[in-house]
Amino acid sequence: MSTGFFDGIDRVRYEGPDSDSPLAYRHYDPDEIVMGKRMEDHLRFAVAWWHSFAWEGGDPFGGPTFERPWHPQDDMGRARMKADVAFEMFEILGQPFYCWHDVDLRPEQGNFADNLSTLEEITDYLGEKMQGTGTRLLWGTANMFSHRRWMSGAATNPDPDVFAFAAATVKGCMDATHKLGGQNYVLWGGREGYETLLNTDMGAEMDHMGRFLSMVVEYKHKIGFDGTILVEPKPQEPSKHQYDFDVATCIGFLRKYGLEGEVKLNIEQGHAILAGHSFEHELALAAAEGMLGSIDMNRNDYQSGWDTDQFPNNVPEVALAYYHVLKAGGFTTGGTNFDAKLRRQSLDAEDLIAAHVGAMDVCARGLKAAAAMLEDGGLEAALAERYAGWQRPEAQAMLDSDLAAIQARVLDEGINPAPRSGRQERLENYVNRFV
């Protein structure tokens, strides 16, 4: 049944590259076979509940600009209306998945018991909606950064009562995710860090964070949750420094606390940029260490030093991202979540549909380019050639040798290597053939 919010907007369909419709897929054909798999099953698109439905259009210098029928989001009637609109949009887009934070779904009650009760109520309602549409839950998570109780962190808070409130909150969110058949559970430590070292015991906070994550893994197994536990790297904003700074930091953290076999990473393009990396760097590193789980696909404005969460529109960047995803074997429980929001001047319901349509087309083009590069094999051949010397027996033996023996070999054989070109420009030209 129509909510009226998207009146006049029909279901978006694939019409091909020559379509001039502003609300049609030109490149995203869910049934197109790419490397032996349906495009929809490769990309596993998800809508972010927070940015698409809960965000009101504010920024650090101004208040809300969106006037939605479910604003203010302060009672369960409006929460159900928001869910009705969300599932109508999923149907319009043909969206296979969605994601949520607990506070996106239900109003803040000010105490844990009522927060839990309203979360259970609204997720029961979501379960009913899911049965009628086929849209599934990619992942759930807890917002433990917005309310003032979290101002000094959640798992890393100096107050043990806040730690307890956080643990209780995560249990409730994991239960809700499990109930809805979620395929992952994400922890993003928005304020798990510090503002100043003058009042911070960094060692204690990281130990508490490590124990908290261990409890999450233990509870996953206790309830028989088959999904993946994911953590999401982010360097700063809102905290001056966050303990989950980037992929490398997260991997080191997981290994320190013996969780590297239990937890994978949810990697966001915007967070990679804030950390001083490229998206492909973060994806390639996670893949190399067997910890690539899922992605948040968005972009930052390169003229801005903060997390602008814009929908993706750069096909070459997206192609290189999916190149590393495909090279790693593709998603299993993970997918492509659009952790992206409209610009605060984009007020219309149609803007919300158009943003997702354009982003899905960009990802489809990127996926096909990535698949074409892999099938062509040019990058892999160049890589194999560059490292071919390491396949020689004497090179492999050197890794089990010692410095003295290696020096003796260099002297004995008169080794004096000449530099070899990295051929970067030729490889960049190669990539541009596909995008």
UniProtKB/TrEMBL annotation:
One of its GO terms (biological process) is D-xylose metabolic process. Its EC number is 5.3.1.5. Its cofactor is Mg(2+). It is found in: Cytoplasm. It comes from the Bacteria. It catalyses: alpha-D-xylose = alpha-D-xylulofuranose. Mg(2+) 2 binds at E268, H271, D307, D309. One of its GO terms (cellular component) is cytoplasm. InterPro entries: Xyl_isomerase-like_sf (IPR036237), Xylose_isom_bac (IPR013452), Xylose_isomerase (IPR001998). It is an enzyme of class 5 (isomerase). Its main location: cytoplasm. Signal peptide: none annotated. The active site is at H101, D104. GO terms for molecular function: magnesium ion binding; xylose isomerase activity. Mg(2+) 1 binds at E232, E268, D296, D339. Keywords: Carbohydrate metabolism, Cytoplasm, Isomerase, Magnesium, Metal-binding, Xylose metabolism. Belongs to the xylose isomerase family. NCBIfam families: PRK05474.1, xylose_isom_A. This is Xylose isomerase. It comes from Pseudoponticoccus marisrubri. The lineage of its organism: Bacteria, Pseudomonadati, Pseudomonadota, Alphaproteobacteria, Rhodobacterales. The gene is xylA.
